[in-house]
Amino acid sequence: MITTCLFFFFSCTLHLMDDLSSKKCIPCDSKDIRAMTDEAAHTLKPKVPGWDLVTDGSILKLRRSWKVKSFTKGLEFFQVIAEVAEAEGHHPDLHLVGWNNVKLDIWTHSVSALTENDFILAAKINALDVQHLLRRTN
Question: Where does the signal peptide begin and end (predicted)?
């Protein structure tokens, strides 16, 4: 019985971790917001393919880059991201470098660290259909 309960708990926990894109970000001014450990961030990182964990100063962040078809496609890309960010109440740092290099940094400014919100937002961004804005890679 105990083995079954533990297995059920473990299975449910893994299922919840796999489905970050269906979760909702909690408000960043909530008393429930907590910085995660580096170990926890490395554990969640495989759930957001394409994103890297980077240290910027002393802050661990999620970062991802794309090449867009044009400068205006980069701005369209940001608009698509902005809609998700506004819906979640959690906003990435957006960078358009040169005419077609888009970079996003995600971290929770209120705690100067990564939280589950960051991984939720990254998963939601991964689920977006933005292929029409991106350059093809050969």
Answer: 1-22
